[in-house]
Amino acid sequence: MKIVVLPGDGIGPETMAATLEVLRAVSSRFRLGLEFDLDVAGHESLRRHGATVTPALLQKVKSADGLMLGPMATYDFKDEARGEINPSKFFRKELDLYANIRPSRTYPGLQHRAGEFDLVVVRENTEGFYADRNIESGGSEMLITPDVVISLRRITRQCCERIARSAFELAMTRRRHVSIVHKANVLKIGDGMFIDICRQVAREFPEVQVDDFIVDAMMAHVARAPQRFDVIVTTNMFGDILSDLTAELSGSLGLGGSLNAGKDHAMGQAAHGSAPDIAGQDIANPFSLIVSAGQLLGWHGQRRSLSAFLAAARAIDEAMIAAIQAGETTRDIGGRLGTAEAGRAFAQRMLER
Ligand code: NAD
């Protein structure tokens, strides 16, 4: 499996170095034969190539088996004409990575704010309120006068259907419960269609229990009792917001894994951003990126029916539980290790088992 690795901005280089150490260890233990092609995106690419991402990089990623993308300083990238392209959106759109799978769970030995839980947010990734990806060319956010902005949201039957199917298929491998999250009381047509299509897809999965929640109330339900939920399916922006909440409820945003998956490609990427407030201090939690790397291996294993990759993904999850229980963690979740030390200890754990 050839993986293109783009460390990213802010805490990206630190957390990606730790993740690579773990991937090398897991590759050796399970004989995965992982090959890494290190390249740049974001600020480093802007400096070297005049653009945060380049067509050559896209071609390389297309011919690889997977991509690990570090967090990006997307807020800094304002003008595409100057090469300031949001790399996350670029790969999600160009590779049609429509399903953003964001698991959150509590861990033994780690304080949790709302009781134990284990859930997955399945977020639509290619349209919705994200103005940078929902039309063919240009952006769908417009300055009409200096004081008036219009931002358009796109919702399509095709995207609703495929994200709903991803959620139900995932639920069949878990506790068989899907919660649809929407704002159909206000966005009556778009979110109305989203619910209808989710309910239609649900008919193909009669074993799966289905309910639905309005997004604002959902924040209260999740904060109060996250254990009520198994798989949560929702549109792009709601999923982005909700998954930061569920990651933080599990202990830290630094635990939030994220896989962006399409039919032919997948990209592991932590749920959080480039965290400039802690960059370069060796204190960022690398576990979010390590979980995402495990998800990428699992995706590859499932797609190609490769049991070693599936076993490797499970081993990463198990090592995560053990590392947290042993306190081999960064300080955001109560440990004393730096980013590099936490990665090294995790990699060692993978080799010893
Ligand atoms: P952020 O997610 O980077 O950080 C939010 C808070 O969580 C900060 O206090 C940060 O220190 C903490 N945090 C994040 N990751 C952590 C980790 N691994 N370990 C410990 N603490 C962690 O959000 P922000 O500060 O609002 O955004 C910073 C930049 O990241 C912006 O340019 C934003 O656009 C971008 N961003 C990128 C992505 C992405 O690449 N997928 C996602 C979200 C935000």
UniProtKB/TrEMBL annotation:
SMART domains: Iso_dh. SUPFAM superfamilies: Isocitrate/Isopropylmalate dehydrogenase-like (SSF53659). Keywords: Oxidoreductase. The keyword Nucleus does not apply. Gene3D superfamilies: Isopropylmalate Dehydrogenase. GO terms for biological process: isocitrate metabolic process; tricarboxylic acid cycle. Its EC number is 1.1.1.87. One of its GO terms (molecular function) is magnesium ion binding. The keyword Chloroplast does not apply. It holds the Pfam family Iso_dh. Residues 2-346 form the Isopropylmalate dehydrogenase-like domain. Belongs to the isocitrate and isopropylmalate dehydrogenases family. PANTHER family: DECARBOXYLATING DEHYDROGENASES-ISOCITRATE, ISOPROPYLMALATE, TARTRATE, ISOCITRATE DEHYDROGENASE [NAD] SUBUNIT ALPHA, MITOCHONDRIAL. This is Homoisocitrate dehydrogenase. It comes from Cupriavidus yeoncheonensis. The lineage of its organism: Bacteria, Pseudomonadati, Pseudomonadota, Betaproteobacteria, Burkholderiales.
